[in-house]
Structure formats: C-alpha cells, structure tokens
Design brief:
Blueprint: E1 3-8, H1 15-27, E2 30-36, H2 47-57, E3 64-69, H3 73-80, E4 84-88, H4 92-108, E5 113-117, H5 128-136, H6 147-161
Parallel strand pairs: 1-2, 1-4, 2-3, 4-5
Pathway: Cofactor biosynthesis; coenzyme A biosynthesis; CoA from (R)-pantothenate: step 4/5
Keywords: ATP-binding, Coenzyme A biosynthesis, Cytoplasm, Magnesium, Nucleotide-binding, Nucleotidyltransferase, Transferase
EC number: 2.7.7.3
Length: 162
C-alpha cells in the first residue's frame, strides 16, 4: 500500500487542489491531505475551518484522509507511513520554491520521495490567494471552488465589508 501526503495551507481549498487529489487517488492507495498551521502566514480561515472545508469538499474520496499539522512535514509523513510527498505545480514560477522544499525534505528524510502533479489547464492560474482576493472584493469564485467553500467565503467577506 502506497501512501502519499499532500500538504498545503488550503486557505481555501480550490478546485485545482481537488483536481490534484482526484488524480492522486488513481496513483496511490491512500492520500493524506495535510492542512498546515503555517504560522508564517495569516490565513483567512482558522485551521479547524480549513480542515472542515477540506473534509467536506473531499468527502467523495474514500481513500483520502484530511488532517491538520504543524511542524515538519517529513515528521508527519513518517507518522502516516507516507512514501511520497505530493506537490502541485501550476507554473514555472512555482518550480524554484518547490525544488528547494523537495531538496530539504530529501535531506531530512531520504526515504520519502517528492512527486509533482500539475492541475488541469483550467486551474493553472488558480491559487488560494487569488480566490481570497476575488472573494474579498465581491467577485464570482463559483467556478474555482466547491459551493461550500464559496458560501464560506461569502459569509466571511460579507461580515468584514459591512
């Protein structure tokens, strides 16, 4: 059984993330979606809310487990028995940062491989920060996120703008 771990802040989880997860379920027996605390960023949603939204969005996938984490990703990967760290690449601009992360993770845990997947073309421009920005300004994000995420964003930003 091969387990992959797919980390991110998922603030919010987008259809691009879901596309990566969908394809990962065809490649791996189990996919752990690891929602990061990421103290260096100020997320729009709390960690618990991001986990809750990811669980709802990914509920259709029996082989997917969603959990939160803080600390080193490789420590969680070892705890979960993951052999693969899965990362998404949208554009060449993502590569340099992802390459550095992969190198560090390999140094920390050489037994764990990093693999990259690219999202479907329609999601290559989609990022959580873009979705948050559009939603915060009242724009339509319905084609970029699951309806439950869209509702959560509308709820969050309608309260802040009133």
């Amino acid at each position: 059984m091969i387990t992959a771990i797919y980390p991110g802040t998922f603030d919010p989880i987008t259809n691009g993330h879901t596309d990566i997860v969908r394809r990962a379920t065809r490649l791996f027996d189990k996919v752990v979606v690891a929602v990061a605390l990421n103290a260096g960023k100020e997320p729009a949603c709390t960690l618990d809310r991001r986990v809750e939204l990811a669980k709802t969005v990914l509920a259709e996938f029996d082989s997917v487990e969603v959990k939160s984490f803080s600390g080193l990703l490789v420590d969680l990967a070892k705890t979960e028995g993951a052999e693969v760290i899965l990362r998404g690449l949208r554009a060449v601009s993502d590569f340099e940062h992802e390459f550095q992360l992969a190198g560090m993770n390999r140094r920390l845990a050489p037994e764990i491989e990093t693999m990259f997947l690219t999202p479907a073309e329609r999601y290559t421009f989609t990022s959580s920060s873009l979705v948050r920005n559009v939603a915060a300004h009242g724009g339509d994000v319905s084609s970029l996120v699951h309806p439950v995420v869209e509702a959560a964003l509308k709820d969050k930003y309608s309260i802040e703008t009133e």
